[in-house]
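Problem 12. The chain below contains 140 residues. Write out its predicted structure in token notation.
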Amino acid sequence: MNLRPAVLLLCACSIGLLTGCGENSTTPATSGGSPASKNASPADPAPQPGVTLTATPNPVPTSGGPGKTTIAWEAGAAGANPDAAVYVVTDGGAEALFAKEPKGSSEAPWIQADHTYEFRLYNNAERQQLLARLNVTATK
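Solution.
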């Protein structure tokens, strides 16, 4: 019996897994490390019913000082993610907790020009699954 084709297939599959071959960029991100590893922007999450994350306005107008926007979110159907949390990353830095509730809105009155803010909605405060993310910028 010739095992060569089976061995080649096994090797090809192993290499594909190690290099991320066939990875879908819309697969929700999962955690698996220390909070310091959360700085990198996770993969775009797959769309889920009832999950929203918005900023009004965006871009945020500023005139010599910080501008403000209202971040609104919903972490899915009622009861789907009761421990949901919103984190914010400024200029690619560390994630900081913005809000911890499955649905709500909160003002961010500290948005400054020449900075980028990424808001991330997770299923819980441990950031196990990214549900949505949103980039907020400011205009001068």
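Discussion. The mean pLDDT is 78. Students who got a different answer should revisit the alignment rule from Section 12.3.
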